[in-house]
Amino acid sequence: MRADDLILFYQVVETGAFSRVAEQNNLTNSVVSKRIARLEEELGVQLLYRTTRKLTLTEAGKALVHGAKNVKQATQEAMESVSGYGENISGHIKMSVPTISGDLILADAVAEFCNMHPGLSVDMSLDNRFVDLFDGGYDLVIRTGYLEDSSLIARHILDSQWVVCASPSYIAKNSKPLKPEDLTKHNCLQYAYQTTGASEWEFKGAKGNYISKSQGLSPPTMQRH
User: Fold this and answer.
1) What confidence category does residue 41 fall into, taking pLDDT thresholds of 50, 70 and 90?
2) Is residue 45 over pLDDT 90?
3) What are the start-end ranges of the H helices in 155-217?
């Protein structure tokens, strides 16, 4: 016995006409009639007396109508219990983001997102280290690099642009590098990119890429872009 057939049966009793039920459910009269007939066949009893003027419940139909009404009400209550979940965002999100990204890019965006959804709270941890999503209980992690664990889902957000810069005092003491090759004679602060352990900067140009093995004041790597 199908629950939707029971609901259809109750609608027929409630409206008193196959045509009204057909219109409500975007069906044809013949489909409604066949489904009621299928329900009667499965139960082995006649539920309705059909005449050209009206529908009348049989004794079996009277016995079934109350249960069919309960099925309809239970279905409506189940649907109402989850209504709005797709529209209103609520709950708690724990996320980890790089320090610079959190300060410069995400802080205002997360605050605005929370204002749009008052039922939502966000715990944003600023940390450059690579965290474990499962052990740390994180819902979302933003990092620069490539996803190594194929069981995780990653989405590209943006491309980072790296620049080489120096303080005026450093230039005054050590001269100004004019091309990437000159960096081999300079002390450079390099970003420690944990997933590769590389120790060079990569420059991209029209004639191809150039990797500069500069003297680093910290272990690490320049991230490719």
Assistant:
1) very high
2) yes
3) 168-174
Measured between alpha carbons, how far is residue 221 from residues 11, 51, 203, 218 in Å? 70, 85, 13, 9
Amino acid at 174: N
3-state secondary structure of 181: helix
Nearest alpha-carbon partner for 130 in 114, 148, 156, 113? 148
Task: Classify the C-alpha dihedral 180-185-186-191 as positive or negative.
Answer: positive
Give the pLDDT confidence of 53-68 residue by residue, as tens digits: 788 899 998 999 988 8
All domains of the chain, ordered by start, with CATH?
3-82 (1.10.10.10), 84-158 (3.40.190.10), 168-216 (no CATH)
Q: Is 122 exposed, middle or buried (0-12, 13-18, 19+ CB in 10 A)?
A: middle
Owner of token pair 């889902």: 153
Residue type, 104: L
Three-state SS for 223?
coil
CB atoms under 10 Å from CB of 39, counted, come to 20
Residue 201 β-bridge partners: 212
CA 21 to chain CA centroid, Å, is 38
Please work out, in degrees rounded to the nearest 5, the angle formed at the alpha carbon of residue 140 by the alpha carbons of 137 and 146. Answer: 115
Strands 201-205 and 208-212: antiparallel
AA identity, residue 99: T
pTM above 0.85, yes or no: no
